[in-house]
Amino acid sequence: MTINETLDTILAYYTRPGRMSDAGEYAPLFGAIPNGIAETVQTLQGLLLHIFWADRYGVNLSEERKAEVSIRSVRAKLSRLFEIDPRPLTTPRPPELRLVGNCRDFSLLLASILKQHGIPARARCGFGTYFMPGHFEDHWMTEYWALDSSPSGGRWVQVDAQLDHFQQEVLGIQFNTLDMPKGRFALAGEAWQMCRRGEANPDDFGIFEWHGWDFIKGNVLRDLLSLNSIEVLPWDSWGLNEAPVAEFTPGQMALVDRAAELSLLGNDGFSQVRALYEQNEPLHIPAGWER
Q1: Angle 130-132-137 (CA atoms, 0-180°, nearest 5)?
Q2: 152 falls in which pLDDT band (50, 70, 90)?
Q3: What is the rounded CA–CA span in Å between residue 108 and residue 196?
Q4: How many domains does the chain have?
Q5: Is there a domain that residue 288 lies in?
Q6: Which of 109, 165, 233, 273 is the most exposed place for a label (fewest CB within 10 A)?
């Protein structure tokens, strides 16, 4: 297989909808969303309300509305969105009529829309450095393949679709959230390796009272799954993710080390990322989670 054939295989894989990113019967509706990353992100921000930001938008969520954050698949999310407000996706909703979600949902839905537009895209799990000084906040973002004149013909561009103008002002964001500079977002594999080398404190990674080695390990596994087009919820637990790091066998530690390493290789790690997931049953999620 030539280099071009390998790249074509990778890009084709990330253009196809996955188990969670498949919009099902709603996919044709994405055609009405304007092309262009800025326009797509703006449209998405008019459809979703982050559960932890709701009160700042003046919305007091009921327990029923809060439960929307646990909807896994894009298809099911859109079904619920249209129950709340049946207008077209291109119609911005007021905050109280948006689907309740979190960073994973902004990232997943953006990837789903871009895929439908023929653009390779994938959600990534890790930690944002721009929420609290000196802290790595549990977070997701989207990568999409942008063509350029480089020898590889393009690059993966990182986008934080959650951060609208209001959130950027509150957080004091000074960088381009549609093409994030290197170092603003730490992929889960980077966080794991930093802590394994003793360069960072595991307790600086997480959210609220949840942090440390087990949290970082969970995000490494979530990011590995996402690279296999399986975007689980931020709190999902399964297989290897249920084992505490303090009780890991050498083989379990080696598996997470390998997952972290491969997740950082970009296109060069594609085949190995796919093989690592396929060949290790403890990484597989339960049947039916995509519903």
Answers
A1: 70
A2: confident
A3: 29
A4: 1
A5: no
A6: 165
